[in-house]
Design a protein that fits this description.
The protein has about 300 residues and is an all-alpha fold. About 75% of the residues lie in helices and about 5% in strands. The chain has twelve helices and two strands. A hairpin with an 8-residue loop joins strand 1 and strand 2.
Length: about 300
Amino acid sequence: MGPFLETLIGGLMTGMLYSLVALGFVLIFKASGVFNFAQGAMVLFAALAMARFSEWIPKLTGMDSKVGVNLLAFVGAMLVMVAVAWLIERLVLGKLVNQEGITLLMATLGITYFMDGFGQTIFGSDIYKIDIGLPKEPMFLFENVFQGGILVNQEDLFAAVIAAALVGLLAAFFQYTSTGRALRAVADDHQAAQSIGIPLKRIWVIVWSVAGFAALVAGIIWGSKLGVQFSLSQVALKALPVVILGGLTSVPGAIIGGLIIGVGEKLSEVYIGPMFGGGIEIWFAYVLALGFLLIRPQGLFGEKIIDRV
């Protein structure tokens, strides 16, 4: 039972990080109807900004406080992501209002490759470190219940707690603030929202900024675990099966889908992987999402689309 619980807890913690990235997809799709394929590139770009600012700030200011440097770097990276959101709305989305979905998807693909290349141009292409003080040492839990206890990585535990707190913060933002209610109104009906005076362009900038904030937090956590490198955008794309499973229009679905994918990956890696010679964790999530599409295309919590003729 001990090894099973270790695997289960590890999967839940990884799943929270997947949920954090998936939230960016869901938020943008709900507010603008755009499937933002660039969310993975946003995670990478935000992590690069955070890593490089944390290197540049001590050289420019002489500051030697790690907390102060990380705080300034976070603020600087967040300002960068807000600027990115404004430019995307002004230069891309604002020009493609009411276009076909495939046109908007191709636009986000173009944004993806531009951000990958532009990030490499201004921040460099080396592997960078992000050190926000997360403990690296593993610890043992429930030693009195299970022989030897359950081994848990402290860094993963703290990362999962941070991700869960951010998810809760975003849920409260959408539920209890006037801006959040406006975002939900836009998600339900663009034209109705416009008719009561809600400015769509401002709302789109806000939602892309919120998605950028989620991407920044996810990039910091993944960057702290794996290092900031260009494969990070591929890790972020693991959130695609999450949104398919949970539903493109559901914030709770992003959370539940992330937990299902995280746990499924870990359990399949440990218990099924040896039968196939390993590597199952690479494709398990996508196969699960494909199978789910055949049964329930709208996802667990997505809205079923009914066409009336």
